[in-house]
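hey can u check if this looks right to u? its 191 residues, i copy pasted from the old doc so theres a chance i mangled smth
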Amino acid sequence: MSFELPKLPYALDALQPHISEQTLEFHYGKHHQAYINNLNNLIPGTRFENASLEQIVREADGGIFNNGAQVWNHTFYFMSFSPTGIREPQGSLALAIESRYGSFAAFREQFTKAAVTLFGSGWAWLVKKEDQTLEIMQESNAGNPLRQGFVPLLTCDVWEHAYYLDYQNKRPDYLQAYWNILDWKVISERF
């Protein structure tokens, strides 16, 4: 199986001023594409040659895992954005967030803290656990909650390539902008 860069549901300049066209050109067009190219070069002749991306994330190790998980993570991340989306959770996800965190504002504060305080590179996640409860997680490098049997609902990429062109080393500023482009209609549907 050969993987391809998914088409974004918005133009490269559509998320400005929160994420610049230049950042998307590099982050989506170069970094995301490089993970896809690397994965496509690594899997021939392995047991993952015809595997789904989810199987690779759950079962692979080393370079195949790292590149496969980064393909999955980035696709999930980019597909959570919209220039005109719903900016707060809806329906049963909204109720689950309020039940677990007290309010959307309190959840936002805790998720932002998880993303800002993650040491080094990685991902902050909101996941649904097997018992249907929610949890905010930090994952280093290419970490992905699918490996623990959780359902990913939301992620934030805190590798510097996600924000450095726009925000330099100011990760908190990136997180503030991040909330302005999330499409909670998409995220709520994952719940």
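Residues 62 and 189 are 32 Å apart (CA to CA).
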